[in-house]
Design goal:
Layout (H helix, E strand, L loop, with lengths): L6 H6 L10 H42 L17 H16 L4 H15 L8 H5 L24 H4 L2 H15 L8 H9 L11 H11 L19
Helix pairs in contact: 3-4, 3-7, 4-8, 4-9, 7-8
Length: 232
């Protein structure tokens, strides 16, 4: 007589084992997760690298081409901003204290523009381009006027007022006939640089900066938010 299957018998039957996913499917799933992770990580890294690179590029451009930010709504004159304009004031003050006229003071500002973009740099041509002196020795230029060791101590050349005073004295000694010369030639003879025309493109900017920080800005410029050192 055949055995009857009762409810109790059915309940005692073992449940079928859970089927495991094939190894191939697990591998595909893992690969998919890896691709998604890379898809997120790579763009994030690229964006971070972009902003870091942009920051370094902006700093470099600001030193080399001070006009490139002139469209930004930051107090500026001819592309030069607070720190640079403060250095221009220091140059003017040194010139006034030594009795030099406004043209000579403007020549000094123009020279610092051409040498350091009105920044008090603690490095020079040797560090940036490997420039050497005619005898092959490395240049030691630093400061607003990029003066070498023969111009004074490191401390003196890195002090804006002192380095400006040293420039004025050298200009008076080396270019006694400067009133009859173009500004770029006066700077060239004082600095003894290679290109007599190097400073010419900075003259108009220097005129604007001197006028603005002296309290008499030219058309299109303003004294709002910039250092002031008017003639007392």
């Amino acid at each position: 007589m055949p055995t009857r299957t009762t409810a109790t018998t059915r309940s005692r039957r073992a449940r079928p084992a859970r089927r495991q996913r094939p190894r191939r499917l697990r591998t595909r799933s893992r690969a998919r997760r890896i691709r998604i992770a890379w898809a997120i990580a790579v763009p994030a890294a690229l964006v971070a690298g972009f902003f870091v690179g942009t920051s370094h590029l902006a700093r470099s451009l600001d030193q080399t081409f001070p006009d490139y930010r002139s469209h930004v709504s930051v107090p500026a004159v001819a592309g030069y901003r607070d720190e640079q304009l403060q250095n221009a004031c220091t140059i003017l003050t040194a010139g006034r204290d030594l009795g030099f006229d406004q043209r000579d003071q403007t020549i000094a500002v123009m020279t610092a523009m051409g040498e350091s973009s009105l920044r008090n740099l603690d490095y020079g041509d040797w560090e940036t381009s490997g420039a050497t002196n005619p005898d092959g020795s490395r240049t030691t230029s630093i400061g607003l006027f990029q003066q070498q060791d023969s111009w004074g101590t490191r401390e003196a050349r890195l002090d804006p007022y002192t380095s400006a005073a040293v420039f004025y004295r050298a200009m008076a000694e080396r270019v006694p006939d400067r009133a009859a010369l173009e500004p770029t030639l006066v700077a060239h003879r004082t600095q003894v640089n290679q290109d007599p025309s190097h400073y010419a493109r900075f003259w108009d900017r220097a005129v604007r900066v001197v006028a603005a920080v002296s309290g008499a800005p030219l058309g299109g410029d303003s004294t709002d938010g910039i250092p002031q050192c008017p003639v007392s």
